[in-house]
C-alpha cells in the first residue's frame, strides 16, 4: 500500500479539486492503484494575503466535508503546500501550516533562479521555528534551485509524473538511489486517473527505492497521535 505525500484533494480549498464530487473521484482513483494514505496539501500564499488562521479554517472545513463522504477507507491527513516568501519565516501561526500532528512543513520554492535569502529563510524556519522542512516537487525547479536545495540536505519530495518522464527519469531515480530524495507525491489537481496512473508507475520504476520512500512517509506520519 502507498502513501501519497502531496495531493490537492480538499474540495474547493485551492485550484486543485473544485468540489466534493471531484475529490471523491480523486480518492477512488488513488484507491484503485493501492494508495491507502494521502496527505492533503492545499496551497498557502502569504504574498496573496493568506493568514495562518484563514488557512487552517479553510483546510478544516474542506477536510471535514471530504472525510464525512469518504467511503474508500483511505486515511486523509491535513497538510499544506506552503509557498516560501521572504516574510514567511516570521509569520505568526506558522506552526498551523504543518502536517497536522507533526512538526513537518512542505515548502514550495519561489519561481526563478536561486537567491541567497532562500537558504536563510529555510534555515530560520528550522532553527528558530523548530520545524522540519520537506521541499515540494524538487523536479519542477530551475537547475540552480535544485542544486542548492539538494546540497542543503532537507527532506525532498518528487512528483510521480516526472519520474515517468523519460527525460527526467534517470536523474530523479538517482536522487532516490543516493538518498537525496525521500518522498513521492502525485501532486494531483484535475485528472485523478492520469495522476494516480503515474503514481503507481513511478513506484514500480523506483522499485525498492519506491518502497523505501513509502516507509519514510509512514515514519513521518507515525508521529501523529492516534
Automatic annotation (TrEMBL):
Keywords, comma-separated and alphabetical: Hydrolase, Protein phosphatase
Entries under SUPFAM superfamilies matching the protein: PHP domain-like
Catalysed conversion reaction: O-phospho-L-tyrosyl-[protein] + H2O = L-tyrosyl-[protein] + phosphate
Enzyme type, top EC level: hydrolase
Cited Pfam families: CpsB_CapC
Keyword match Oxidoreductase: no
GO molecular function ontology, one term from the record: manganese ion binding
EC numbers: 3.1.3.48
Keyword Hydrolase: yes
Family: Belongs to the metallo-dependent hydrolases superfamily. CpsB/CapC family.
PANTHER family: TYROSINE-PROTEIN PHOSPHATASE YWQE
Protein name: protein-tyrosine-phosphatase
Organism field: Bianquea renquensis
